[in-house]
Amino acid sequence: MNKFSLIAIWIYTVIATILEALSFYYLRQFGYLLANSVIMALGLSQVFVIAAYYMHLKYESKALVIVALSPIMVVAALITGILFSIPHH
To answer: Where are the domains of the chain?
Structure first.
């Protein structure tokens, strides 16, 4: 593993986490659905980056990558459905 890559992933994770916190506080005025969607998108991007690097998915075939990452997309769809079903005031 490249030391630069580890630091870059850590910096991306920290910046995405800060953006998640800021989006909760500043996007609430536009509605919780927007804030929750942004937080979920940032969280999923963190999952994809970490999974791709630490599971060495860039060296695998496309079919294996799809099999490895498809449960994440299913969970994202389920969370999106839950967000739309909860009434927000």
So the answer is: 3-85
